[in-house]
Design brief:
This protein is an alpha+beta fold. It is built from 11 helices and 24 strands. The strands form 6 sheets. It has a 6-stranded mixed sheet. A 5-stranded antiparallel sheet has the order 1-5-6-24-23. Helix 1 crosses helix 3, helix 5 packs antiparallel against helix 7 and helix 9 crosses helix 11.
Length: about 500
């Protein structure tokens, strides 16, 4: 990597595939390299190895903890040796989502970033700017020779998007820092000082099967074309959930049409609003015309209801291979009722922070296995009691539906600290640079900061970042100018860190 530059001019936007010449060059060169190395959640090893090799070649000490988190240290620049130690934190993994027509293997294929006017996007997949831009900024600072900073640590955690196991596993005594700057926020001009906690709800419905009727036809219904997005950041936007929309059709018409379900699936990540869902079934020959009519009617109704939020919605019927078995009537009705009734979306807005979601639920994934149907939901709340209430609702629903539910991976929210010294430094620095006040915010998404407070209760934390739109979906994009603004702010904050 080349040395960084603190030149604060912004790049002229363009239609291009070359991101390596954008400002700041060192950051974008790192991001280009990160995009070239596959790193979906739980598969960060290649990227981690590359970073370790690079850091050691720079003479920077590297520690890999037992769970795979990276800690890289860099001495203070001359004259700043007695400043408080700062850790810049990002996560190594990215969310792997793609459009249905995109041929891409996230385990082997690079992300293809390109410049579209004021934005950097990816071709048909998630971009990984969440949290690749933050990671790139940390690595660019490690590789610099002209940025002023005190003693510095960079913490790169694993598996943030699929369960935060890296943050869960971080042990006391690994970090020396007094201040933590999290780089996983997604709106320039906002300083985050709190976030939601969450839990995964894993629902299991035992499947009882019967032989499929040989004289019935076999079809698949597919919901597609939805925007999806981050189940925290975008949950309030009213976007369609493919799993819920498919279940709504089945609840209204499965009995009328004599449908017998053989397979159902939808979504791929519990923390991404599902964009696609499919259900395969058999249908009596004499009901085919009515089925086709109901599908068209339902698509027209949804296009009217969701015209502003889901203009590309598609609900399509296609023939498929005849199944050997289908769900028994009782199991099928339990399944349809369970998904159709399951809460989804914003549950409550915050009374404390205007305009911020307090509690939400995302019906993220549905899968069919040999003997069960599995549903995975992501529950988020700024307060523990809000999360617990949603858990109790799901438990009651599953009791009524004859299903079981397990709650796994609970993580705490990050409670705001109005007396945070680093928040005050970031706010004052932002005002000095940009001559306007930033917004002090709490985010409904889950940041790792809450988990860091357990082994490091003394850490003074803040979260900043550039403007990222539609993370966790193929429409993800990062605003070029705000990357430069974020970079300028981060460097100025490092220069303003107080003495010990």
């Amino acid at each position: 990597m080349t040395n960084s530059s603190t030149n604060s001019s912004t790049n002229t936007t363009q239609q291009s595939d070359s991101i390596s010449q954008l400002f700041p060059k060192a950051l974008w060169q790192w991001f280009e390299q990160i995009c070239a190395i596959p790193h979906p959640s739980k598969h960060e090893a290649a990227l981690s190895a590359y970073i370790q090799q690079w850091a050691r070649a720079q003479g920077l000490p590297v520690v890999v903890d037992t769970i795979g988190n990276l800690i890289i240290r860099k001495p203070a620049t001359t004259g700043m040796e007695d400043c408080k130690t700062v850790v810049i934190q990002a996560h190594l993994d990215m969310v792997p989502q793609k459009n249905a027509d995109k041929v891409h293997d996230f385990l082997t294929d690079p992300i293809e970033p390109w410049i579209d006017g004021e934005w950097v996007k990816a071709r048909g997949t998630t971009l990984g700017s969440d949290n690749g831009i933050g990671m790139s900024s940390a690595l660019a600072i490690l590789g610099s020779s002209d940025i002023k900073h005190g003693p510095l640590e960079v913490l790169l955690t694993v598996d943030e998007e699929a369960g935060m196991s890296g943050a869960f596993g971080l042990q006391a005594g690994m970090l020396e820092a007094d201040i933590l700057i999290n780089t996983d926020s997604e709106q320039e001009g906002e300083i985050y000082m709190g976030c939601a906690g969450g839990v995964d709800a894993k629902i299991n419905l035992s499947a009882q099967w019967q032989e499929a009727q040989a004289d019935h036809l076999a079809y698949t219904l597919s919901m597609s074309g939805l925007k999806g997005g981050h189940s925290g950041v975008n949950i309030h936007l009213g976007r369609g959930n493919a799993n819920k929309l498919l279940a709504r059709f089945l609840a209204g018409h499965a009995l009328e049409l004599g449908l017998a379900i053989s397979h159902i699936q939808g979504g791929s990540l519990r923390n991404a609003i599902p964009r696609e869902a499919q259900c395969s079934f058999t249908v009596p020959v004499e009901k085919l015309d009515l089925l086709q009519q109901r599908v068209l009617q339902y698509q027209d109704m949804l296009k009217s209801e969701l015209a502003a939020t889901e203009p590309a919605l598609k609900f399509m019927l296609s023939d498929c291979t005849a199944p050997e078995r289908v769900l028994q009537d009782a199991t099928q009705q339990q399944l349809i009722n369970l998904i159709n009734t399951c809460p989804n979306g914003v549950m409550r807005m915050s009374d404390e922070v205007a305009g911020v979601v307090e509690s939400s639920l995302n019906v993220g994934v549905i899968n069919t296995s040999e003997n069960s149907i599995h549903i995975i939901c992501m529950v988020r709340s700024l307060i523990d009691s809000g999360r617990s209430y949603i858990e109790s609702q799901l438990q009651s629903l599953c009791d009524l539906a004859g299903a079981s539910v397990q709650f796994e991976g609970r993580y705490p929210g990050w409670k705001p600290d109005n007396n945070s010294a680093v928040m005050a430094i970031v706010k004052a620095t932002y005002e000095k640079i940009y001559q306007r006040e930033p917004e002090i915010m709490v985010i409904h998404a889950g940041l790792e900061c809450g988990l860091f407070k357990k082994p490091y209760p003394h850490l003074d934390m803040v979260s900043i970042g550039p403007t990222i739109r539609f993370p966790h979906g193929p429409d993800e994009m990062v605003n070029i100018q705000t990357v430069g603004q974020y970079w300028t702010l981060l460097l100025a904050v490092l220069e303003n860190i107080p003495r010990k």
